[in-house]
Amino acid sequence: MKKPKVPQPKPGGPTQKGQCAKRVSILDAAAEVFCRKGFAGASIDEIAMEACVSRQTVYNHYREKETLFMAVVQDILDRANAALFSILATFPDNGHNLEDDLTAFAVRLNRNCVCNHDGKFIRKLVQTEGERYPHLFEIWRQQGPGKIGTALAALFARLSHVARLDIDDFDLAAKQFLALVNADLQMISFFGGTPTDDELEKSARAAVRTFLRAYGRPPAREAGVEELREETA
Amino acid sequence: MKKPKVPQPKPGGPTQKGQCAKRVSILDAAAEVFCRKGFAGASIDEIAMEACVSRQTVYNHYREKETLFMAVVQDILDRANAALFSILATFPDNGHNLEDDLTAFAVRLNRNCVCNHDGKFIRKLVQTEGERYPHLFEIWRQQGPGKIGTALAALFARLSHVARLDIDDFDLAAKQFLALVNADLQMISFFGGTPTDDELEKSARAAVRTFLRAYGRPPAREAGVEELREETA
DNA sequence: GACGGATTAGACAATGGTGTCTATTTTGAC
DNA sequence: GTCAAAATAGACACCATTGTCTAATCCGTC
Q1: I want to staple B184 with a disulfide (CB 3.0 to 4.6 A). Which of A47, B146, B203, B221 is the partner?
Q2: Distance (Å) from the C-alpha of residue A196 to the closest C-alpha of chain B?
């Protein structure tokens, strides 16, 4: 009664090595449970149940708990990476309004990379199990924030070159941009909650505004502060 | 051989209810182990061993694992809070150089509240177990970042009033200040590593510089206003 | 319909953890 | 020195989990 239950074995499942349906189902369920309970707290039975699969099937696909765990991590990282590059490709090199462009970019980044399920999962897991698996932490740092950071720095370098930003240290600016964008949301997504679209938009706009106050080139109409300084001098 | 070992029972231990030495020792050890292994992964035996105490003693002081866990959390929060207010009390209301003052403040805040042992512990624990104990998350948000945030907002309000900052939304600025200060360090302290004093200082200075680019009043007026105020007082 | 690989439920031993109990020893106060 | 409270080691029942094994069942393919 309390053991894994299997509703319908899904007749259409292809039996390939790479992407068998059961395999995916196990991976998803494992991600869910590992994220909720941590490595130690997650039980194979619970994962099997959530995946609508027998425990033995789990062991057939992944030799042991740790194998499964590592497979989950790699899977999530791959997905998050794909999302990141797809977003970076959308930034308009010559849009009209830098503030709007950056805000839209920040919203998309947060929604699809940082605040989404994968993002929360991987951060939580790294913090929970990073000490036990230093290897895991290293992979994450290079493939996660590391990639976002350098990609963003490159973007800022381009924008600086087109004279829309006034940045001296691109890497620093990238880190600060990410930090600002997450200032509001961190608390929400820290827990389980997912920020609403409204919160996402609002906090992104506030962050971008501050960022541009610090790093933006005054486009003549927004030169309030600059002019003030000139006049008082 | 592998059970709790007790070297010397420490003859000088007073037997009071409030702060018995064993009690403290257990609390410290429990914090350490819970932080390393999470709630599920930590075993009472390991805690007892690390505290140089028998398992039964642990159960004598704390009825069950969960009781101990909650006591640890409350203890850490109290300590972190005390540290925070002691730091806030040191900010000079009428210093000469705002950048230096803010930088020093940020360094101290990070060293004693955010990047130190307690800070890392509480963040890790909230993220690990927050879902299982929503109560824990709520306490943390109000007593931790919440208190820092409002205290910082109040400080910025004071500084704005003395015309050293140009801020419209104090709460937002406080959040952004904290975010900027942690932009660099987050990655380091995310794992187990403790940032060096040098890293702390450098990242704080970069953050404050950006913050002041966004929110600072042109420095020409700073000294004048300050002096005027002092003289009229 | 028959075959073979995948999948299933369920039993199983081994392990390790929790919380209780007891008999003994230590400790500080008197 | 005596005494009571606290702390100790160790045994214990109980439970959950891991990973293995087996016999039965499902599935697509031939």
Answers
A1: B203
A2: 18
